[in-house]
């Protein structure tokens, strides 16, 4: 059995703009929230865990604020590339209307990638993890992990900044079984 926990980075300093692939800083000023999250991580994963991170600055900064030495990074863990939507304010984003989750997951912004594309990039990284691991990632990373169990319905989950999503995997690649242990455990007040 392997436990994989995805810790979404601390609040991103985006100035109210979408920053999927934008390399922005994280607000790591809430020492009490990081202390609470460290306690949650220890309780759920114990001390014998490994860390892995998205190369995004906000993820690496979050790892540092959690007391981890800079973890190895994997480019497969980057957030979804929103293409032409990158850098837009949330008010400027197009309204796609109500879409079934399978259509939303397949929607690809111009020059970017769909949720399905991003999940196809993230999930092999998750499947390759051989030891209990804490991944410093993004909301998309956590939803891609959840999609291993619930498919496109993973898009329905809220993933707050500095929140923990925990899955357990048993079995070998190609015949593994995934279970969701926790979603969106937050440390922020």
Q: What would you say this structure looks like, in words?
A:
- With 189 residues, this protein is of the alpha/beta class.
- It has one domain: Rossmann fold (3-Layer(aba) Sandwich).
- It contains five helices and five strands, in the order βαβαααβαββ.
- The chain has helices at residues 31-45, 57-65, 101-106, 115-128, 139-150; strands at residues 2-8, 50-53, 133-137, 163-170, 177-186.
- A five-stranded mixed sheet has the order 2-3-1-4-5, sandwiched between helices.
- β4 (163-170) and β5 (177-186) form a beta hairpin.
- α4 (115-128) crosses α5.
- The longest helix has 15 residues, at 31-45.
- It is globular and about 45 Å long.
- The relative contact order is 0.24.
Task: Give a quick summary of the entry.
By secondary structure, the chain is α/β, with parallel strands linked by helices. The protein has one domain (2-186): Phosphoglycerate mutase-like (Rossmann fold), CATH 3.40.50.1240.
List the uncertain runs.
none
Pattern of helices and strands: EHEHHHEHEE
Helical/strand content category: alpha/beta
**What is the domain total for the residues?**
1
CATH topology: Rossmann fold
Number of strands: 5
- Rounded to the nearest angstrom, the distance between the terminal CA atoms is 32 Å
Helicity range of the residues? 25-40%
Give the biggest sheet: 5 strands, mixed
CATH class: Alpha Beta
Give average pLDDT, whole number.
94
Radius of gyration, CA atoms, in whole angstroms = 16 Å
Strand content: 15-25%
Shape designation: globular
- Which strand order spans the largest sheet, edge to edge or round the barrel? 2-3-1-4-5
> CATH H level: which superfamily?
Phosphoglycerate mutase-like
Count of DSSP-assigned helices: 5
CATH architectural grouping: 3-Layer(aba) Sandwich
Pfam families: His_Phos_1
Protein name: Alpha-ribazole phosphatase
Organism: Paracoccus alcaliphilus
InterPro entries: His_Pase_superF_clade-1 (IPR013078), His_PPase_superfam (IPR029033)
